[in-house]
Amino acid sequence: MTAAILSALLSHWRRKPFQLATLILGLALATALWSGVQAINAEARQSYARAAEVVGGGGLDELVHLGGSPIPVETYAALRRGGWRVSPVVEGWIFGEGGRVRLLGIDPLTAPPDTRAAEAAADLGLTEFLGDGGAVLAAPTTAERLSDLNARVEPIDGLAPGIAFADLDVALELLETEGFSRLIVHPEQPLRQAPIAEIAPNLERRAPDAAEDLARLTDSFHLNLTAFGLLSFAVGLFIVNGAVGLAFEQRRPVFRTLRAIGVTSRQLVLFLTIELTVLALIAGALGIGLGYLVAAALLPDVAATLRGLYGATVEGALTLSPVWWALGFVIALLGTALASANALWRVARLSPLAAAKPRAWSRASAGTSQTQLILSALCLAVSLGALVIGGGLISGFLLLGGLLLAAALALPATLSAILGLAERTAKGPISEWFWADTRQQLPGLSLALMALLLALAANIGVGTMVQSFRETFTGWLDQRLASEIYVTAESEAQVPDMLAFLEPRTDAILPIWDTEGEVLGAPAEIYGVVDHPTYRDSWPLLHAVPDVWNRIADGDGALVNEQLARREDLAPGSTLPMPGGWETTVTGVYSDYGNPLGQVIIPKDILVARYPDVERTNFGLRVPKDEIDAVRTALVVEFGLPPDNMIDQASLKAFSLQVFERTFAVTGALNVLTLGVAGLAILTSLLTLAAMRLPQLAPVWALGLTRERLGRIELLRSLVLAALTFVLAIPVGLILAWVLLAVINVEAFGWRLPMMLFPLDWLWLGALSLLAAGLASLWPARRLASRPPADLIRVFANER
Amino acid sequence: MNVKGYLTALMFAPTVAAAQGFAGLGTTADGYSLPDPGTRFEYPADHGEHPDFRIEWWYLTANLDGADGESYGVQWTLFRNALSPEGQPEDQAWMAHAAVSGPEGHLHAERFARGGIGQAGVKAAPFEAFIDEWQMSGPSLSDISLFAQGGDWAYELTLKADRPFVPQGAEGFSVKSEEGLASHYYSQPFYQIAGTLILPSGDIEVTGQGWLDREWSSQPLAEDQTGWDWVSLHLDTGDKLMGYRLRREEGTAYTVGTWITPDGTPSPFAPGDITMDARRFADVDGREVPVAWAITVPERGVDILADALFDQSWMPTAVPYWEGPVRVTGSHPGRGYLEMTGYE
């Protein structure tokens, strides 16, 4: 019996291999996009964790200098002698052939437990690591980038990527600096200690921020990716739903027969569940494989984005845990369950004696449409609630998800209303029939159309955001990068000679000196500027007091970047406490896209007076356009300045834009994939309908419409529905864009971008969606056109 | 002597440790000075560092009586290990161990430091040896105060000695193997101690006796010497006895020592004059350790048993070993310290 049931059920797939392929493909795609995105996120998080665990397993307190200057060796020794188990760290960037690498100088002798680099150093032999000539340790990929470093580089597996480790002495020499960046506080402290305030009043104990910061900064990015993965997954499920619905519908006579010969409804559901589970597992395996490929293809871009945007280093290679594989299968199974629950439910309730009701599956009652509208209103309420009450990224995404769902759920009712309107204005029987029949088909197509709406709205929304961002960013770069050449002297000793040399050859020399410190509880960059027309003319101020530059010239006031201003609610006139225990007044707020940190700009003289340790080697040079190359060459020839120490405006802009483009490359790729998936959803839905619509079409054919004409009408119908959906997707997409720009971006990055409209892009998208819908309906339409008339006649002969 | 200090070497050359004697102490001495039998000690200069030698230590053990009637043992050790033979402060790495053994258990702590930055070092006069907040310092090495601490314990002791420092071996030239590897080695076994132990259960006033070992060398062990068993004993007669047995891979041992009379006159034993045999084993941290030793010196009529006060005096430090106070019974009763390495 079992064999007979199985063979009866499975024979369907033998006869419809394409349907089987669609089902598996849909599920595999959904799984692939979801697990691909998860793999990328997991890889990035792992990298952050490893970077955070660089010293003492992460999570240990640190002592830092209040003013941000290095901690003298004497202070460290005094702390140790006062009973404080602290371990020094010196940090900076080194430049190798393959780009820059963060160098951490550690003291393996005092490093807290679980310091991976100290363990690696002990494995290597401390004499190989300690003191002058000691080895620099780095992960193999990072070590490759340091091949030309003037030190012995040892590749060590399992170290955090993008970070090199060396003994304190070696690091101090490579970084050409003195003193320690911070002191890590050992988790176990001895019984008696002198108070830190007595030994080192300039030091402050604080909780670790690096790891948390990186996680906080990149959270928005990962949430973005996850949202996209989820969207793709949802769209993929529409396909599965379509395919399962079709397969069940076509096997309805088989089910009825099986029931009639004594198979219980429980048995039938059980067998179908087993069948679907097996299919889900196969599709899951395929999907995970595909997901791996998606992740591997996107990861380099993601890594580049994270590096460019947040300075976070992520290994370019995937290392996936078994959990990830298992989760892929779980997702595939869950997705199948979700997509086929309805169909199974119907099979369970199928009466063996029920007459064939071919349209039962597709015809939704008026009630369904109303239920959807109510649900839609609910979603809208939730999303508006999130907008009003919320704050934070999660509520931003809640707003987004609610809006999209509400729009999707309202789609069938809206389309139905439009079609009803068209029906009333239609002239002639064929036209009337066309509209009426289109409307009648809506319930069967509505899921696919919802998928299309989601994909289109996401495309329009994200596209608008990216384009708005690009426009704003490009304009902002022009303002911000006003100097023609940016120069970094090799040492401060070199600076006076260099300035004397440059003086007659340039229009202006603008010092760009900076330090880092904690402003209002978070790390921030502090820059010093001089008063110069360059700033007056072009600095991208958002709000400012009227005499902002005069005050800077007088050594007064501070400019803060938008993200700091938003985070701390600062406006011109606010008081700003600065590291080192002094205060200044905010005189202006400027836009600072792409910077994850807060930034403060104060008059240069104040900077130098308050923070004597500032780096004084960076300058911006105003040079007439035609002399740029001459000045660069002169600097190389006269001062032996490595070309890497100079960058001209054009290259800097190109680089910034490149970072920008890569940031959104992933978004773009996911966008295209989602649209593709939606197209496939339409195809499967149309195929399902085509098979069922014969009884409806046969009378029309019998009344004299040729099969070719019917085929063309079918094609037209799909195009009309796609076009309507597209038109409705535009406002949804624009609302989405607004949410992204005005809510999500502000929460995620701390800046708000002006929204710009790009109707030409929509036209392209509209054409694309028509093309997708057209292609999807071409095949069913052609099949109809070439259907043997006997098929159509048979409709009248029996009821299937 | 006090071979235990060689421990430190393991930290700095772990990859060769397995092949070259216990704790890498069999590592060759390229570029470093070698002990010279003609060298005579000059105090106080020799209390300070000898950076032209690879390794060196200041090693103090004490047998204490608490006001609570219990016996306690205290250890304070500072090791210097050269990273290169250039002899500059920054070429040195420092390691220190401290412990208190008592009825409550064995409390211990370990510290490391790099040289040349003021975190650790030794000065001969006025004497000061320190690493972090731990220190052994005073007007001279015969009049010092001692401090060390861990997470929940500490000790503060003052030590005074009114007798001379005692050269070990041949005028301070202490031979460690048949091949003639050696170290410079002297002791101060006559400290009288008073002070306070700050223990988790409360403060305890203590008095007692201390024994300091000073030793430096460059390659003190033969490559196949795998560990040692060492005792320093305060006998009730006022005599002091130091003895050790260096074990070889093939199972033989090189056993020597010194007899020190109450006025500080040393008489070194020739190899084999003293015997040491394990009498009792204890399971310590998953390994069998001989915690009681029968010791004989036939020519002096010594036939004693040195038995651990606290069997679990294990130092689970980077290089683990056993170090704790012993009670001496038999022909010459007394007390002292036992150290055993190579039982990993």
Account of the protein in words:
The complex is a heterodimer of chains A (800) and B (344). By secondary structure, chain A is an alpha+beta fold. Among the domains of chain A are: 1-48 and 214-354, no CATH class; 60-207, no CATH class; 480-654, no CATH class. In chain A, the strands form 3 sheets. Chain A has an 8-stranded mixed sheet, with helices on both faces. In chain A, strand 4, helix 6 and strand 5 (153-155) form a beta-alpha-beta unit. In chain A, helix 9 runs antiparallel to helix 15 (429-480). The longest helix of chain A has 52 residues, at 429-480. Chain A starts with a helix and ends with a helix. Mean pLDDT of chain A is 80; it is low at 358-366. Chain B has one domain (3-27, 42-340): Beta Barrel (AttH-like fold). Chain B contains 2 helices and 23 strands. Classes of the chains: A alpha+beta (800), B mainly beta (344). The A-B interface holds A 73-74, 76-78, 80-83, 85, 107, 109-110, 122-127, 130-131, 168-169, 188-193 and B 11-16, 83-84, 90-91, 93, 109, 112-114, 117-119, 130, 132-133, 149-154, 198.
